[in-house]
UniProtKB/TrEMBL annotation:
<feature type="domain" description="Glycosyltransferase 2-like">
    <location>
        <begin position="59"/>
        <end position="232"/>
    </location>
</feature>
<protein>
    <submittedName>
        <fullName>Chlorobactene glucosyltransferase</fullName>
    </submittedName>
</protein>
<dbReference type="InterPro" id="IPR029044">
    <property type="entry name" value="Nucleotide-diphossugar_trans"/>
</dbReference>
<dbReference type="Pfam" id="PF00535">
    <property type="entry name" value="Glycos_transf_2"/>
</dbReference>
<keyword id="KW-0808">Transferase</keyword>
<dbReference type="GO" id="GO:0016740">
    <property type="term" value="F:transferase activity"/>
</dbReference>
<dbReference type="InterPro" id="IPR001173">
    <property type="entry name" value="Glyco_trans_2-like"/>
</dbReference>
């Protein structure tokens, strides 16, 4: 009985993959979802300030082997136009020169506090444990802003965060910085993160209807009101999550907290990965757990993404060469709808507009990274910066 049902499902899936009408209907739905999400995604305006709210802010930076970018990050945070400010960085077992860079900056500016990370307890992943220690050290702060060490910020970033949180009465805010893309592999991998968030998750639906499974966030800059952070259980509640940002968004949705994703293109930037190996390793770490960690739905999802966003480019060429007008027209319509999603997301988040043309390649590269992620997590090889994440 189970085998028969499985064969039936596979036949339906194969039929759907061949059905251009179904793909076009799906793409129209993706466009509508993206439009709704993007309309509900504020842009942090450089120069904006809150009207009345002036919370004591702690910016908390976990750093492990971040010698390459930690100075730019920390100095940009110390340059914030905000009076009640503390910057706390934790050196989480770095084996490069991160600690030396932090010690030098601390000697120059007493507002910087540097912590030495404690050994990783059982059941915790590295980033949640580092962030939990940071939050404990910032017990007097009303607003906690967690910032990744590969980010840097304009002097008005904190004021813009506080302004949006005050105006929209938010408990949590996920800021997506402008992504600096250094080469081909970065350009073909990193943009899939904000694109997937806007097109295939739905922060807007999560907020409107309380749909936790539709919630998602990017943890490069993640701000919490103190009471909301504690109500969520802090990083202890996500201690075993490789995608702790998504877990926080879903937890906030279940608890009825107010939260948003915002574009930080005017006030923040990030060089998430540098080069092919880092880009693939980063997605290998994140993709499988971020998409639920269930093999069959994960494989089906990526198969469908390839059919909807990559295959039409191939079908357009092959159909044109073979003179199949109907197939060529369908593929062209699918490509236009897919390109529309990439163009809209690129404009909102400050990504290169040429992603509208490169979208099929980005999804193909994402599928390649997704296969690596599945293999790494299923074989217990998933790791990041020398730490095992699975197995």
């Amino acid at each position: 009985m189970i085998a028969r049902a499985g064969r039936y499902v596979l036949r339906l899936a194969a039929r759907a993959l061949r059905d251009d009408r179904g793909v076009l209907a799906y793409l129209a739905g993706v466009c509508a979802n993206a439009a709704w999400n993007l309309r509900n995604t504020p842009v942090l305006a450089d120069g904006s300030r809150p009207e009345r709210w002036r919370p004591a802010v702690a910016v908390l930076v976990p750093a492990r082997n971040e010698e390459r970018g930690i100075e730019r990050c920390v100095r940009s945070l110390l340059a914030q136009e905000w009076e009640a400010l503390r910057v706390i960085v934790i050196d989480d077992g770095s084996t490069d020169g991160t600690a030396d860079v932090l010690a030098r900056i601390q000697q120059e500016d007493g507002r910087l506090t540097v912590l030495r990370g404690s050994p990783l307890p059982d059941g915790w992943l590295g980033k949640p444990w580092a962030c939990a220690q940071l939050a404990e050290a910032a017990a007097d702060a009303e607003l906690l802003v967690f910032a990744d060490a590969d980010t840097w910020h304009g002097p008005g970033m904190l004021a813009a965060v506080a302004a949006v949180m005050e105006r929209q009465r938010l408990d949590m805010l996920s800021v997506v910085p402008r992504q600096e893309l250094g080469g081909m592999w970065e350009r073909w991998t990193v943009p899939i993160i904000p694109w997937a968030l806007m097109t295939h998750l739905s922060p807007a639906a999560a907020q409107r209807f309380g749909l936790a499974l539709a919630a998602g966030a990017v943890g490069q800059v993640l701000a919490f009101r103190r009471e909301a952070y504690e109500r969520l259980g802090g990083h202890r509640a996500v201690r075993g999550e490789a995608a702790e940002d998504v877990a926080f968004a879903r937890g906030a949705t279940r608890m009825g907290l107010r939260w948003r994703v915002a574009s930080g293109r005017e006030v923040s930037a990030c060089r998430m990965y540098q080069g092919r190996s880092e880009a693939l390793a980063g997605l290998e770490k994140n993709l499988f757990p971020a998409m639920g960690g269930r093999t069959v739905p994960y494989v089906l999802a990526w198969t469908w993404l390839l059919r909807a966003f990559t295959w039409p480019a191939l079908a357009l060429v092959s159909g044109g060469l073979a003179g199949r007008r109907r197939a060529t027209a369908a593929a062209g319509a699918e490509l236009i709808l897919g390109a529309a999603t990439w163009l809209a997301v690129a404009r909102k988040f400050g990504l290169p507009l040429r992603l509208a043309a490169e979208g099929p390649v980005v999804v193909a590269a994402g599928a390649f990274a997704a296969a690596r992620s599945l293999a790494a997590w299923r074989t217990g090889r998933a790791a990041w910066k020398g730490r095992r994440l699975a197995g």
